[in-house]
Specification:
The protein has 133 residues and is mainly α. The protein is 55% helix and 3% strand. It is built from six helices and two strands. The chain has a two-stranded antiparallel sheet. α2 crosses α3.
């Protein structure tokens, strides 16, 4: 389970109570375009995300749409060192190999850990001779 920020929870409650179309549907987010109902594909969500990013002055890169939401969540979870199988479950991915692509974002964290070991290993293999003097 992923914790919900207070402001996100408030915005979600506001959407449910005031903005969500009053339609008998088990889906939380619905299309406002008739026929009102669940999104049939990711394209409308991608358009919404891109529009909001542009509105916020964010320069759009290669990944700017519905996938960006998934990528952001996965990146954040991997950065928090959550278990890879937990990240896969949250994303609804069947294969850990698919989720493993997000581990690349943790490369800088791995470098922080690897550097001291590399230096220690180097010192062990190539001790610096002491000068007598």
């Amino acid at each position: 389970m992923v914790p919900l920020l207070e402001e996100t929870g408030a915005a979600l409650a506001d959407y449910i109570l005031r903005a969500r179309p009053r339609v008998d549907s088990p889906y939380l987010f619905l299309s406002f375009t008739p026929p009102v109902g669940p999104f049939k594909c990711a394209a409308p969500v991608s358009r919404i995300v891109r529009k909001r990013l542009r509105h916020g002055g964010v320069e759009l890169g290669r990944v700017a749409g519905a996938h960006l939401l998934r990528h952001s969540l996965a990146t954040q979870l991997v950065g928090q060192r959550r278990p890879i199988n937990e990240v896969a479950d949250l994303l609804g991915q069947r294969s850990i190999n698919t989720t493993a692509l997000y581990v690349k974002v943790a490369a800088s964290q791995l470098a922080e850990v690897a550097l001291p070991f590399r230096e220690a290993w180097h010192d062990r293999l190539c001790p610096i001779p002491r000068r007598e003097g």
